[in-house]
Amino acid sequence: AFWFFFDDMFGYIGEHAHAEGTYLETAMTVIAVLCALLTSAVVTAAFYRIKDETLKKLMKFVIAFVIMAVIANVLVMIIKEPVGRMRYRAMNSDLGQSLGGFANFQNWYESRGGQPEEWSAYFESAYGVTDAFKSFPSGHTCAAGMTYALIMLPDVLGIRNKGVRALCWIFPVAFTAVVAISRIVVGAHFFSDVLFGGTIAFLSMMFAREAIIFRFRHFRCFGKNYVPAPEEDAEFAA
């Protein structure tokens, strides 16, 4: 699992650095392997020292995360294909310009009814891409939004320290925002694409959080509205 995460992350960095086919691509792969091995070792050592009761609580977190990931990714896949929104960089390419350029722009709420097979074949032949018409919503931003799962950790472990709880919100929001902005910068998406990609991830997390941790009791998560998860471990309270 760690290998897939780091391979995708460093592959994404390599894509932005135009490292395909260079020694940097190989270096990125080696770094991804080392990071995966190191992370696996650290996690294994950490779990070895964790109490059984805490492990049971973390299992609840894992279940919630899996539900979150499945819902978010299925929604993105279901929406992408029928919408068939053309990417900015596809419209801005030489081939895209020859096919009408930005006249092919469509709003996020409009559907093309699927990818135009003939045009998709043109882009695959010219640039080797098969996703020229899969702009909405952003899959990369949704994937980055999986870090929203950190928001559930304080609820599962009973962490009430305001600084830790704030960090579990700030980091995923900032990380997802950085990925979203980078996707716009490289011309892969429009703002609405990344907005919906991130929102799908967040709402999926909120659903999983309510279903698994709070058992559909509420959607409260700020300040005085905070309601601790059932059977919290007091040792984690600040």
UniProtKB/TrEMBL annotation:
<feature type="transmembrane region" description="Helical">
    <location>
        <begin position="166"/>
        <end position="188"/>
    </location>
</feature>
<dbReference type="Pfam" id="PF01569">
    <property type="entry name" value="PAP2"/>
</dbReference>
<feature type="transmembrane region" description="Helical">
    <location>
        <begin position="138"/>
        <end position="159"/>
    </location>
</feature>
<keyword id="KW-0472">Membrane</keyword>
<dbReference type="GO" id="GO:0006644">
    <property type="term" value="P:phospholipid metabolic process"/>
</dbReference>
<feature type="transmembrane region" description="Helical">
    <location>
        <begin position="61"/>
        <end position="79"/>
    </location>
</feature>
<comment type="similarity">
    <text>Belongs to the PA-phosphatase related phosphoesterase family.</text>
</comment>
<feature type="domain" description="Phosphatidic acid phosphatase type 2/haloperoxidase">
    <location>
        <begin position="61"/>
        <end position="209"/>
    </location>
</feature>
<dbReference type="GO" id="GO:0016020">
    <property type="term" value="C:membrane"/>
</dbReference>
<dbReference type="InterPro" id="IPR000326">
    <property type="entry name" value="PAP2/HPO"/>
</dbReference>
<keyword id="KW-0812">Transmembrane</keyword>
<keyword id="KW-1133">Transmembrane helix</keyword>
<dbReference type="GO" id="GO:0008195">
    <property type="term" value="F:phosphatidate phosphatase activity"/>
</dbReference>
<dbReference type="GO" id="GO:0046839">
    <property type="term" value="P:phospholipid dephosphorylation"/>
</dbReference>
<dbReference type="InterPro" id="IPR043216">
    <property type="entry name" value="PAP-like"/>
</dbReference>
<dbReference type="InterPro" id="IPR036938">
    <property type="entry name" value="PAP2/HPO_sf"/>
</dbReference>
<feature type="transmembrane region" description="Helical">
    <location>
        <begin position="194"/>
        <end position="214"/>
    </location>
</feature>
<feature type="transmembrane region" description="Helical">
    <location>
        <begin position="27"/>
        <end position="49"/>
    </location>
</feature>
<protein>
    <submittedName>
        <fullName>Phosphatase PAP2 family protein</fullName>
    </submittedName>
</protein>
